[in-house]
Amino acid sequence: MEAMIAFDVETPNHRNDRISGIGITVIENGVITQSVGTLVTPETYFDPFNVALTGITPEAVRKAPTFDRLWERIGEAFSGHILLGHNAPFDMGVLSKCIADYGMAAPDTLRYACTCNMARRFFPRMEHHGLADLCCFYGIPLDHHKADSDARACAEILLRYIEDGFDVTPFFRRYDVAKRKTLPYKPKA
Asked: Which of 65, 141, 151, 163 sits CB 3.0–4.6 Å from 8 for a disulfide?
């Protein structure tokens, strides 16, 4: 299995164009090797709804890195791995908006897969396919809307799919960063 990075972002407001928290979990050779999370200074306003949902406040991010500083550390890894998210198009969209807003260098496309889309195919009779639902189904601990916990749970879910014998490769996609749209997958050369 190719190395993957499960990630989850939290946003400060309804615009979903800035990040206030990010969780990253690395999967290598079918094993989680690293799981981290960090707050991010979004350089924008916070909606009360988002603060209530995530617990992330303007005071909490005061000393956190801005997205451009964070991307200097993670950009290369994100470009070189398949990204994984639960409801991945949302996270990919937020990520691409941040890259554009900050004028950061990024590849034309990023490879990704969505564990929520996989759940809909693997468990068609399951009523709900949200992250909390899958964590409950598999008995995976979750502190929902905490980016590091959500990213780790997403990675755990993918590993459970594989253990259950599901083929996840048909769900790999490419994301056009500039156009913010999904494209068919092309394996890495």
From this structure: 151
